């Protein structure tokens, strides 16, 4: 099949990249694998001369990159947000390989945007950033030396999707996966609701929410699903506040 | 299965590398994928400081590299010699993907050495070098930009073998694939024999031999096979020379 249109929907997001050479190598790797959409989140004083040199004939991707202040903005319109994590990182029990996720990425990319998110060279993605991800990617590596160069990590993820795309036929999709910004509104409502109902205390809230995020992003979560979940959370908050008010009222009586 | 022993038999050979940074990145990629055996053939004034920097925690591979004067020496003991070629290169009709060859590489590596051969950054492998290869690898890339960075090419080939190795069980091997040096002696005898018998003239010999190389390396070629083929070639040469001598004698009578 002609795959250009699908690959056009796949975005590479680099969070806090440090070395211009890596960013340039990422551009070349993307071009080799048919991708063009590059977003940098808070790049750190990149050496652009090095970036240009390593980008080689892919300087158009470098020139047309977007720079943003937060990962949330970078993936707001993305229906699947696939983040990479180191072997020993958090959530590794949920991680799957680039090959495992390649088909999912293409399925979502047939009708919506997909982000592949890569962390800082020195310290990866932080927990807040990982929590925006709906899929966790772990690249298979040797136990002896698992730390892979940023551009090499990007290459493998893009390569797996490119190889898969050559034989891939997208199925008919009925309902679209929810975009990130909508999921985040939903999770915000649930957070408040679980606090309101006393299910969790503030000091455990972040931890509990990570669990809920995993449960709700394990399968496909459509826009309709998200609207239903938002309704549930709002209603629980309303009920909890009603009960609290009644209790206060009862006390003051 | 424990795969260390198999991956130990897989050698990365870089022919005429130009940039130290690439060689260093190759070391890191090899370490990430469990390989350690690096051979450089006629490296060209490498910037070793850059190499060391990019090798990161894989400087042991860099320090323990072998440097040789010819590809023939570098692969002499290798039973499979897998060379990479650009999309538009010679022999591309024989080329298969890194994934296609990964299982073959592991099968041979279970009992013998395998070379993965990568050409110069600027002009790849020449015809003589490609003729030493028993398998031609072509990495899948976009039509728009097919030229892939050296370290990125090495990574993809090593990655495919590493991923395959995680689930791979080697079969019982009865007869071993012939090593490169023995194949080359055999091809030398055949070249002479085909000249002796008048099958080909000297000006077409290289071209004809490429064809024969393809035919004889398409399947597995064992040491026994090679000895039989050497015998055939020697015998044909002997017969052809006998006939030539008889003709000369008849003329002088």
How helical, in percent, are the residues of chain A?
40-55%
Largest sheet descriptor of chain A: 6 strands, parallel
Q: Quickly name the level 1 CATH class of the largest domain in chain A.
A: Alpha Beta
Biggest interface: A-B, 31 and 31 residues
Q: Quote the distance from N terminus to C terminus of chain A.
A: 72 Å
Number of beta strands of chain A: 6
CATH architecture of the largest domain in chain A: 3-Layer(aba) Sandwich
- Which parts of chain A are unreliable, with pLDDT below 50 for 5 consecutive residues or more? none
Order of strands across the biggest sheet of chain A?
Answer: 3-2-1-5-4-6
- The Rg value of chain A, from CA coordinates, equals 20 Å
Element string of chain A (H = helix, E = strand): HEHEHHEHEHEHEHHHH
Let me know the CATH homologous superfamily of the largest domain in chain A: SPOUT methyltransferase, trefoil knot domain
How many domains would you count in the coordinates of chain A?
Answer: 2
What's the oligomerization state?
Answer: homodimer
Please give a structural write-up:
The structure is a homodimer of 253-residue chains. With 253 residues, chain A is α/β, with parallel strands linked by helices. Chain A folds into two domains: 4-165, 3-Layer(aba) Sandwich (Alpha/beta knot), CATH 3.40.1280; 180-252. Chain A has eleven helices and six strands. The first copy, chain A, has a six-stranded parallel β-sheet with strand order 3-2-1-5-4-6. The longest helix of chain A is centred in the C-terminal third of the chain and has 30 residues, at 223-252. The radius of gyration of chain A is 20 Å and the shape is elongated. Chain A binds chain B through residues 21, 25, 28-29, 31-34, 54, 56-58, 97, 99, 140-142, 144-149, 151-152, 155-156, 159, 162-163, 166, and chain B through 21, 25, 28-29, 31-34, 54, 56-58, 97, 99, 140-142, 144-149, 151-152, 155-156, 159, 162-163, 166.
